[in-house]
């Protein structure tokens, strides 16, 4: 806007001079507009995708830089939570350039193994920590603060040429994925009589994935109970590519990955007892996409919060959580929940509110409010 105004003023002055003098000085050539800064990406470098960010209506104040902060923060864990933490890492680097953050992806379970062994400072997780994982942390003298950051809806995806699977009931999904279906239920027709008599190809997150744990708990009824004759990967991008290439492929992934590929895959609505509901921001937020809506977390070592750079990063993460989560294509928590989470961090409340591990359909806000009392 300023450039256009500047050029307009130059033209106006030139016209005035022209009216009063016989010669006119040439108008200056406008300088080219500066190139926009590159936007943050959602994926690792090998498969990076640009994030479209809408400009704010009102310019925001520049963040206060913290050149006094230094040190290293090591983070690992969930591939589902990775895009949110990556954005937080990139934006935090702009205000604390002397802090080095190392971010890895080894799945929720793999991340907790490193976390409870004392290797990492923060663990990304797409499910609550399990009781046995908590016990390992405790045995190693590691206390942690559990921090919910977002909502997700595990999305069941199929190849775009698959025109027959529009919706599946929880029972049908269970029949497809249950351990005792291995080697017995192998074609679409066995799931529903009017579907093709063709073998389906199963793709899913690996056993270290929190998505695998949550899906099996919600659909099969027991955590980690799954048939084994599927192709697994801790990388959701690989699962997406498999389904894109295989007409009879079917997989389940985090909502953000489906959102990124809506033009290349189809999504299956899920009937949890109240009709066919597809994953969307609205259905995940209002709880109608059941039973596959779930919370996402980061876990931070309590003693690491004594380090200024770790405390500053966690504070930055929570202060900007809603924007980070939306930019990563997930669903922010209600403002009241973020307030309760910030109180939890400020009080250094350790342990998990999910004392029994994965609890399908439980409200985070209810659990945090009970804890707060």
Overview of the molecule:
The chain has about 375 residues and is α/β, with parallel strands linked by helices. About 35% of the residues lie in helices and about 15% in strands. It is built from 14 helices and twelve strands. Strands 5, 6, 7, 8, 9, 10 and 11 form a seven-stranded mixed beta sheet that branches. A five-stranded mixed beta sheet has the order 2-1-3-12-4. Strand 1 (about 70-75), helix 2 and strand 2 (about 100-105) form a beta-alpha-beta unit. Helix 2 (about 80-95) crosses helix 12 (about 320-325), helix 3 (about 105-115) packs parallel to helix 4 and helix 13 crosses helix 14. The radius of gyration is 25 Å and the shape is elongated. The N and C termini lie far apart (about 50 Å). The relative contact order is 0.16.
